C-alpha cells in the first residue's frame, strides 16, 4: 500500500465526520429488515428500497462525498501542495487516491445492498447487487475524482449530475439513460441475477462498455488534469 | 540627562459622533446580504453559475408550461403543482445556497466579528434563515408569476384574470411553505460543518434518503402507517398539508390521485410546525456557543 493511499485512507476514515456516511447504508438495511419482517411482498418493496434508495441515492451520494473528499478536500484547504511537491509521477498520486475512494464507497454500499438483496429474494440477487454496485462505485469515483480536478466546486457539479441528469432528466427523457451510471448498474445487476425487481431500458453490452469507458476515461482525465494543475487560493 | 524632546502631534484622530445604528439595522443588513448571497449577487461570476442555472431551468419550465397551456387552451398544471414538480431543483438550490450562507462564515472564523456588533446571538441564524427562505420563495414564486402573466394575457375579460389571481395566491402561499421547511432543515445541516462540500452533500443526503422511506411506508400492511407515511419526508409533508388545506389546487385528476391522508390532515400541519420549530431551536442552540476557529 503506497504512502499516498495510506494518507488518503487515514484522512478519510480517521475523521469523525466519516461516521456521517453510515446512516445511509444503515437505513437501507433497516428498511429491508422492516419490510421483510412485516411480510410485505418483495415485488412491492424491492423497487423503492433496492433501486429507489440503494442504487439511486446511497450509491451516488456516498461515492460523491468520498470521491470528492479524497482529492477535493486537499485541494480545498491547500495541502495538496505537499503531495504535489514530492517527486511522484502524477498517476501515482491519482490512482492510489482513486483506489481508496473506490474501496471505501464500494464497501459502504455493497455490504448493505447484499443484505437487502438477500432479504428481497436470494443470495444471488444480493451478490449481483453488490458486484454491480462495486462496478458502479468504480465509475462514479472516477467521475467525481476527475470532477474535483476540473472545478473548484466538485460537489455541486456532481450534484448536478446526480440530481438533475440522473434524477430528473433520465426519468422524463428515457434516451438520456444511455449516459447514466445508475442505469448501467441496474442493467448489470439484472444481468447477473435476472429478477422482476430490476427494470431498465439500457442493454447489458452498452452498460458494461460504458462503465469501463467512463472509469478509464475519467481516471486518465484526472491524471492529465493533475499534470497541469495550478494551485490557487480559495476563489469566491 | 537631556530633556525629552518628543512631541505628541495631533494628527487628526477623531471620535465618531454620527448616529449609531442599532440591532434592527444590523439584522436588516445581514438579511439583505444573505439574500444577495443566495443568488450570488455581488460575487464573482463563478458564484452565480449554480444558483442562476436553477433559476434558469425553473423559469424555462414555467414558460414552457405557459406556452403549452395557452396553445391547447386548458391548464397543464396549477400553481401549487408547479412547486411540487420542482422538488429536486429546490433540493439542489438549498444545497447550493445554505453552505454559502453559513459554512463560509464558520470556516473563515469571522463569527466573533459579527457578534462584536450589537447583534444578539439569535439574530444571526434567524437572519440567515429568513434570507434562505426568501430566496427559495422567490425561486418558486417567480415562475408562478410568469405563469400568471402568461395566463392573464391570454385570457379574455377581467373576470378570468381575477380567477387566475385567486389561483395564484394559494400557489404563492404553498411556495412559502416549501421555502420555510426546506430552508430550516437545509440551514441546520449546513450550520453543522464549515466545509461547503460536506454541507452540500449532507443536505442532499438528508433530503434524498427520506423519500424512499415514504415509498416503503406506503406499502406496509397498515392503513394508519400508510396515511401517516408522508410525515417521513419534507417534500411529502408539504404535499400532505397542501392536500389537506387546498385539495383542489394539488389534486386535479378526477380519479382522486395523490396520497390518501385519511383523517390525519391536521397532523401534517402540526408536524410541519414542529419540524420548523425543532430546526430553529437546534439552530439557535448551535449558535449559542461557536468556536472562533
Q: Helix and strand string of chain B, N-terminal first? A: HHHHHHHHHHHH
Helix residue percentage of chain A: over 70%
Q: What does the main sheet of chain A amount to?
A: none
What is the overall number of helices of chain B? 12
Q: How many domains in all of chain B?
A: 1
**Average predicted local confidence, pLDDT of chain B:** 86
Rounded Rg of chain B: 24 Å
What is the chain-wise order of helices and strands of chain A?
HHHHHHHHH
> How many separate domains of chain A?
1
Q: Count helical runs of chain A.
A: 9
Category from helices, strands and their pairing of chain A: mainly alpha
Oligomeric nature of the chains = heterodimer
Largest interface: A-B, 41 and 33 residues
**Portion in strands of chain B:** under 5%
Shape verdict of chain B: globular
Shape descriptor of chain A: globular
Low-confidence stretches of chain A: none
The tally of strands of chain B reads 0
Structural class call of chain B reads mainly alpha
Low-confidence segments of chain B, given as residue ranges, are none
Protein name (chain B): ABC transporter permease
Pfam families (chain A): ABC2_membrane_4 (PF12730)
Protein name (chain A): ABC transporter permease
Short note summarizing the structure:
Chain A: This is ABC transporter permease. Chain A is mainly α.
Record the SSE blueprint:
The complex is a heterodimer of chains A (236) and B (293).
Chain A: H1 3-13, H2 23-37, H3 42-77, H4 80-84, H5 90-120, H6 123-150, H7 154-172, H8 181-192, H9 204-227
Helix pairs in contact in A: 1-3, 1-5, 2-3, 2-5, 3-5, 3-6, 3-7, 5-6, 5-9, 6-7, 6-8, 6-9, 8-9
Chain B: H1 23-38, H2 45-72, H3 79-85, H4 87-108, H5 111-115, H6 123-154, H7 158-190, H8 196-217, H9 223-228, H10 234-245, H11 247-250, H12 265-286
Helix pairs in contact in B: 1-6, 2-4, 2-6, 3-7, 4-6, 4-7, 4-8, 6-7, 7-8, 7-10, 7-12, 10-12
Amino acid at each position: 500500500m503506497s504512502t499516498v493511499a495510506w494518507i488518503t485512507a487515514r484522512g478519510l476514515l480517521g475523521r469523525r465526520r466519516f461516521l456521517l456516511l453510515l446512516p445511509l447504508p444503515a437505513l437501507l438495511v433497516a428498511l429491508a429488515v422492516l419490510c421483510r419482517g412485516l411480510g410485505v411482498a418483495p415485488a412491492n418493496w424491492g423497487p423503492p428500497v433496492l433501486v429507489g434508495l440503494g442504487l439511486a441515492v446511497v450509491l451516488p451520494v456516498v461515492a460523491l462525498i468520498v470521491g470528492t473528499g479524497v482529492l477535493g478536500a486537499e485541494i480545498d484547504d491547500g495541502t495538496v501542495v505537499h503531495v504535489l511537491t514530492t517527486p511522484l509521477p502524477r498517476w501515482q498520486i491519482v490512482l492510489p487516491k482513486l483506489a481508496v475512494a473506490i474501496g471505501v464507497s464500494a464497501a459502504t454500499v455493497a455490504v448493505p445492498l447484499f443484505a437487502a438483496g438477500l432479504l428481497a429474494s436470494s443470495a444471488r440477487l444480493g451478490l449481483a447487487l453488490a458486484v454491480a454496485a462495486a462496478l458502479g462505485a468504480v465509475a462514479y469515483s472516477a467521475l467525481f475524482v476527475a470532477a474535483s480536478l476540473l472545478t473548484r466546486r466538485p460537489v455541486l457539479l456532481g450534484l448536478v449530475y446526480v440530481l438533475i441528469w440522473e434524477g430528473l432528466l433520465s426519468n422524463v427523457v428515457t434516451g438520456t439513460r444511455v449516459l447514466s451510471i445508475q442505469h448501467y448498474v441496474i442493467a448489470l445487476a439484472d444481468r447477473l441475477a435476472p429478477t422482476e425487481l430490476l427494470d431498465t431500458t439500457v442493454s447489458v453490452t452498452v452498460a458494461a462498455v460504458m462503465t469501463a469507458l467512463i472509469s478509464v476515461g475519467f481516471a486518465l482525465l484526472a491524471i492529465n488534469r493533475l499534470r497541469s494543475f495550478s494551485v490557487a487560493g480559495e476563489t469566491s | 540627562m537631556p530633556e525629552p524632546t518628543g512631541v505628541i502631534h495631533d494628527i487628526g484622530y477623531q471620535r465618531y459622533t454620527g448616529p449609531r445604528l442599532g440591532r434592527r439595522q444590523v439584522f436588516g443588513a445581514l438579511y439583505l446580504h444573505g439574500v444577495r448571497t443566495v443568488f450570488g449577487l455581488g460575487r464573482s461570476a463563478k458564484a452565480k453559475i449554480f444558483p442562476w442555472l436553477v433559476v434558469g431551468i425553473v423559469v424555462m419550465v414555467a414558460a414552457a408550461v405557459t406556452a403549452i397551456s395557452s396553445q391547447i387552451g386548458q391548464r397543464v398544471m396549477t400553481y401549487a403543482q408547479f412547486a411540487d414538480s420542482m422538488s429536486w431543483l429546490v433540493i439542489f438550490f438549498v444545497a447550493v445556497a445554505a453552505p454559502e450562507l453559513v459554512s463560509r462564515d464558520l470556516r473563515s472564523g469571522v463569527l466573533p466579528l459579527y457578534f462584536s456588533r450589537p447583534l444578539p446571538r439569535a439574530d444571526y441564524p434567524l437572519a440567515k434563515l429568513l434570507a434562505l427562505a426568501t430566496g427559495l420563495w422567490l425561486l418558486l414564486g417567480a415562475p408562478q408569476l410568469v405563469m400568471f402573466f402568461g395566463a392573464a394575457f391570454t385570457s379574455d375579460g377581467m373576470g378570468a384574470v381575477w380567477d387566475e389571481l385567486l389561483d395564484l395566491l394559494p400557489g404563492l402561499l404553498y411556495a412559502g411553505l416549501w421555502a420555510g421547511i426546506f430552508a430550516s432543515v437545509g440551514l441546520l445541516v449546513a450550520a453543522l460543518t464549515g466545509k461547503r462540500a460536506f454541507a452540500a452533500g449532507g443536505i442532499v443526503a438528508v433530503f434524498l434518503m427520506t423519500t424512499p422511506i415514504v415509498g416503503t411506508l406506503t406499502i406496509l400492511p397498515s392503513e394508519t402507517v400508510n396515511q401517516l407515511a408522508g410525515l417521513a419526508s419534507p417534500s411529502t409533508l408539504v404535499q400532505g398539508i397542501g392536500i389537506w388545506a387546498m385539495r383542489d389546487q394539488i389534486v386535479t385528476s378526477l380519479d382522486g390521485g395523490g396520497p390518501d391522508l385519511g383523517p390525519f390532515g391536521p397532523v401534517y400541519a402540526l408536524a410541519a410546525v414542529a419540524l420548523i420549530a425543532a430546526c430553529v431551536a437546534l439552530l439557535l442552540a448551535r449558535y449559542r456557543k461557536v468556536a472562533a476557529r
